[in-house]
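[step 3/7] fold_predict: job queued, chain A
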Amino acid sequence: MNQFNSPSMGASQLDDVIIPDRFEALSRLGMDNLGTIVVPVPDMLIEIDSLHKTMKSSGRGVFMILRGDSGAGKTTFLHTLDLYRENVSTISISGGDDVPGFLRTHIPPRDLSMEVIVLEEREAALSFTEEELESWLHAVNGFIRSEKGKNTLVVWPCNSDKLKDRLVALSLTIGGKALLGRREDAIFFSGPGKSTYTEIASRTLAVLNQGAGLSDFGLTSGDIESLAKESDTVGDFLGDLRDEIIEKQKSVSGLLEKEHPNVWVVVVAGNEPDGEVAGLTRGNLSLVDMDRLMTSTEANIVQDLKKTPEKLGLLATVLNAKILHLPVLAATASVRAFSDEKLQEKLKKEDFALSPKKPDEAISRLQQCELGSIFQLGKQKTLVRGKKLGDKSITSFEKVASVAQQDDASVNRAIGNALLAAGLIDSFDIEVPLPGAYAVRSDMSVTGKFGKARIEMMWRTKTGRADIANYTLKKLEVYGKAIGFIK
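[step 4/7] structure written:
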């Protein structure tokens, strides 16, 4: 078998875990995400409130030197002030921009209570001459004293005492207490407290990784506490968290020497359990939600698995495990149109109507359902909910399901032929063994735009969330044992 090489289709792969450890990377993912990831820093918000009162009382703007270690979250804090204070906006003067020129031409919005201007990319002490620093501080001093700068907080973030000391000395020389305020010094920024790191990790994983939880990446609360204890800043913590996840994933991936497939459970049942499937998956990629799987079943057969959800969660993530729903009408039409002679004989015994064969209808239904969307696009598209199944349709499907319980290989082969005809896959095989110490035969192995996937077909006349959760967990356990990850 060929090694699985995943194309870029938006599916979560080994190196796709998204955990930015700096504001610049986070902002590139979209500012809409910030509000659900960032946590407040109460002490610094109090400082900002105090500076704002000084601003209003004095009738002029304020300059602040913000001293904090690299990765403490200075830039993130400054650019998310609007989440915690009304009528506040933050802009940057990038490292390549001329500070005096920018301040000379900048007109702050009039409807703001406060505008924050951040001098970005100027944290290194050795790269600036005394003349440059003087020029910039003179420009800042003149701007905050002017009419247009009276509601402006200009912030110079720095991450070294050497630069901080130079800025403080020059500021006192240029503007005295009027420029730096009563402190006559920098304000120290330590960032979010370590007690918030678990919350930050959970938020970041969930928002940027299709709703993933800690267990989906093989993490325990103990892992988070250990990483937090060893990290000096929140940036270091997030970087270490990302490295920890990647190492955990590599430990599983290394066991998949001959094949690295996707593992997808396809649920087809007479009661159309699309809502039940949605309740066990996360995001628009139909990825399994380990926390929901674990809480949806109390079956004895999975009690041992529930003791270490992070292990099964990690396996599911590495295998890109999904749960997909195949509608009854798509399944029935596919079996009717693409069954071989052996299957037709079995269907006749169940009094299943083999005609009229409508391959075009089967293809259309497959292409338009959730399963077809995942196969084609790698993610769900907006689906139009069909009419409620009639008694005749349910009876026809139950006959197919009855045959599948006796000979699922023949029924699955018909589904494979239909998927092939619909252009959703490039090839397929039935009952394909997975090399390993523990014998595993997948119902179907398919190739397509998504690479290679092992499909497990769950045929039921009727099913529910607990049944789907049991089935999926046991399948994951079997794959885990096959590669030696689960003993």
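[step 5/7] annotate
The chain has a mean pLDDT of 87.
The first helix runs from residue 23 to 28.
exit 0
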